[in-house]
Design goal:
The complex is a heterodimer. By secondary structure, chain A is mainly β. Chain A is built from no helices and 11 strands. By secondary structure, chain B is mainly β. Helices cover 0% and strands 54% of the residues of chain B. Chain B has no helices and 11 strands. In chain B, the strands form 2 sheets. In chain B, strands 2, 4, 5, 9, 10 and 11 form a 6-stranded mixed sheet that branches. A 5-stranded antiparallel sheet of chain B has the order 1-3-8-7-6, with no helix packed on it. Classes of the chains: A mainly beta, B mainly beta. The interface between A and B is medium-sized, with 20 and 18 residues.
Chain lengths: 109, 110
């Protein structure tokens, strides 16, 4: 089992560029999540998906969109990146406890 | 007030010391509780779930006090490898609502 995988590991964007962060899990979990982590702020929920075909906003959804492509995959899209979106992004999945991917370190210049 | 609050860090302790972290939560409807560990530049990893009766895993002991709405983590005989940030996590309804505390950083010194 690979658990939760994320791509890419690192990314540098210019302001206004778009990109999609990919996440996949092989644990057959229904629920999947996207978080961002900033120094001093802890983990903040961007979006989550309780099951295939459903998504809901978390604490900080502005500037992001998500797609739950199937049970395994949950992607996060930045349509027009801003410097305020410079952060570390973690994907997670859960049954009763959460398991995290290794993260994507994104810098927006 | 944040929904989940933790002791401010960092905690700097010598090897072999016993260290305790506290966490308080404000939502009395919270149902399940966890401690996660996060190493520098890595993802959070589950350390242990916290049960009402308290639970122990080797050198780690977790306690839950529902009446006072706090959770504790005790680490005995600290090792250098215990150096990390410890995150308190509360789940409101056994569903998707995991709320993370800001974390407490521990440095175990030789």
């Amino acid at each position: 089992n690979a658990g939760v995988t994320q791509t890419p590991k690192f990314q540098v964007l210019k302001t206004g560029q778009s990109m999609t962060l990919q996440c996949a899990q092989d644990m057959n979990h229904n629920s999947m999540y996207w978080y961002r982590q900033d120094p001093g702020m802890g983990l903040r929920l961007i979006y989550y998906s309780a099951s295939e075909g459903t998504t809901d906003k978390g604490e900080v959804p502005n500037g992001y969109n998500v797609s739950r492509l199937n049970k395994r995959e949950f992607s996060l899209r930045l349509e027009s990146a801003a410097p305020s979106q410079t952060s570390v992004y973690f994907c997670a999945s859960s049954l009763d406890t959460q398991y995290f991917g290794p993260g994507t370190r994104l810098t927006v210049l | 007030r944040k929904e989940v609050e933790q002791d401010p860090g960092p905690f700097n302790v010598p090897e072999g010391a016993t260290v305790a972290f506290n966490c308080t939560y404000s939502n009395s409807a919270s149902q399940s509780f966890f401690w996660y560990r996060q190493d520098c530049r890595k993802e959070p990893k589950l350390l242990m779930s916290v049960y009402s009766s308290g639970n122990e895993d080797g050198r780690f002991t977790a306690q839950l006090n529902r009446a006072s709405q706090y959770i504790s983590l005790l680490i005995r005989d600290s090792k250098l490898s215990d150096s990390a940030t410890y995150l308190c996590v509360v789940n409101r309804n056994y569903g998707q609502n995991f709320v993370f505390g800001p974390g407490t950083r521990l440095s175990v010194l030789p």
